[in-house]
Structures are given as C-alpha cells and as structure tokens.
Amino acid sequence: MKDKISWEETILHIRELDQYKDLVKYAYFEKDLVKNVESFRKSEEFLETLKIIKFYNPDAKTILDVGSGNGISAISFALEGYKVTVIEPDSSDTVGAGAINFLKQIYNLDSIEINNFYFENNPLNDTIFDIVYARQSMHHASNLNQFVKEGSRVLKQHGLFFTVRDHVIYDNFDKEKFLIDHPLHKFYGGENAYTSKEYRDAIFNANLKLIKEMKFYDNVINFYPLESEYINRVKFEMELRNDKISIKLLKVFSSIPIINYFSSKLVDKCCPKLLDETKISGRMYSYIAVKE
C-alpha cells in the first residue's frame, strides 16, 4: 500500500480489517449504503439533530448539506420532507456524490440536488437556504473563515447555521496528538482540527450570532455512539458521589474556616471527573448559530 491513499481507498481498505469493524458500523461506512441510512435515521444523533432544527427553525423547508459524504444525512433529511441541496467534493460511489446519487435513485427522491465541488468556492446564489448543515465537515476546511462566510452568504435572514461533530483541539501539541491517535489519518492524511476559539471567531466574523457551543459531553450528537442514558447515569452517579464526599468533608472540617473554604477543591481532588473531555483525543463540538 502506498504511503497515502484516497479517502475512498481508505474506507474500502478498513472494511476488510476486523479491528475496524466497529468504526465501520458506527461511522456508517458499511458497503450496504441503504443500511447506513437506516441506521443513521434511527440514531440518537439524528433524532436530536431534528429536534434542534425544529426548535430553532420550525418553518424551514430547504437545507444545504455541506460535505454530505455517502449521503446518510442528505437522504435522511429528504425523507423527513426537506428539500436538500448537497455539496460533496468527493465524487466516488463509496463515500461521495456517486453514493448519494445511488441512494437518491433507490429511495426515488426528487427533492435532492447533488453538487460536486468545494464549499469554500461554491457558485450558489445568496440567501437561498433556511438551514446550512455541516456534519463532520467544517474542521476539514482549508480556510475556516471562508467556509463559515459562505455558510452565512447562502443563508436566508434568520436562517440556521448548524455544524455538528467537529474536532476541537486546545493547541498545536494537542493537534499533533489527535492526528497520531486518529485511526484513519495514517492512511489518507486528510484529518484536521481547530480550537474552540477559532470556530467561534469564524462564526462571529461571518456576521452570525452564536447561540450555543455544545462541548463533547453536552449533547448526544457529539458523543454518539455512546448512549445519552449511559452518559446521564454517569453524570448522576458523579453528582451523588461528590455530594456524599462534600457532606463528609464539611462535617469534618466545618469548624476550620480556611479548610471549609477549600472543601470544594478537596472534593474535586478526591473525585476526578469521569467525563473529562481532555482525555478524548480530538473531542467533537457542535455549533448552533443564526443569521440576524
């Protein structure tokens, strides 16, 4: 195998390797494209995505799906009744526009338009979409500011800019660690990540109003395929444990003012956070913004 292979070649390669079977399943890279769509449509991630879209833009009819990959999101939105325009620079039948076109025919959908070019230099008209949605694609932008400005340009007034599952790094050292740890970067070399500040600044510079930055453990969209029930149970158990230790510490040290003052810090030291995103390499964030 060459030093670096294409994204399509990477997916075809890992499908044959047993150690990647869970990644192939949960990242929706199965050979059966319909199976990928049906699995995604039932996922907690997609159900939560729909909930957010309907909350922030209940009257939306048009969605621009940026970097749709093999089409799981585009097809799923179309099946929900949205008119979907896709931008996907990869043309392949495995993980690109070819796969989306295949699924469009299988599901007999005429509400999907497929475009094969990069978003940063797209020819689409201004202010034509109710929603710009980008799943795991904003962090791949070669020019982050241009990427977000294009999102703002094609949005209607009060439109929703919704990017999900983008890799966040703290600094250059953290980025290097992320690239080393990423299971597929060694094959195709196309991974990337930005800091939280860089994402937020790009949104601000594009004249979008940031409504919410969802960190890794804030929402199932980011931490899926971990289940929200599991994460919520861990959070509850952490709170119970911290409360019990806090009570014990306060009983022991309440008569000593200076120690009582620092009791919360002692609790933190005794109870390290189980849900610590710093331990997640290239942790994923999602961003909700609107065009005012």
Quick description:
The protein is of the alpha/beta class.
Query: What would you call the structural class?
Result: alpha/beta
In percent, how helical is the residue content? 40-55%
Strand order of the largest sheet: 3-2-1-4-5-7-6
Question: Total number of helical segments?
Answer: 14
Element order: H for helix, E for strand:
HHHHEHEHEEHEHHHEHHHHE
Give the termini separation.
50 Å
**Topology-level CATH name of the largest domain:** Rossmann fold
- Write out the CATH superfamily name of the largest domain: Vaccinia Virus protein VP39
Radius of gyration: 21 Å
How big a fraction of the residues is strand? 15-25%
Let me know the average pLDDT. 90
The number of distinct β-strands equals: 7
